[in-house]
Amino acid sequence: HEGACRLLADGVDIRTIQLMLGHADIKQTQRFLNITDEELRKAMTGVWERRRQLKAVGQ
Questions:
Q1: 0.90 cut: is pTM over it?
Q2: Residues with Cβ < 8 Å from 29, sequence gap 6 or more?
Q3: Whose CA is closest to 16, among 26, 31, 2?
Q4: pLDDT averaged over the chain?
């Protein structure tokens, strides 16, 4: 639990943490990390923004 919280604090996106923990549902990871729906929304928005930026650079 502490390691996953540190990853989140260090900027690792929650989807990556979900995969590392083996959670089938992002909500399970959210509960595990004790984050709110708003924090989850912001984290996922950041993930999609980074993906969009990477695609733009790769084109």
A1: no
A2: 4, 14, 17, 18, 21, 23
A3: 26
A4: 84
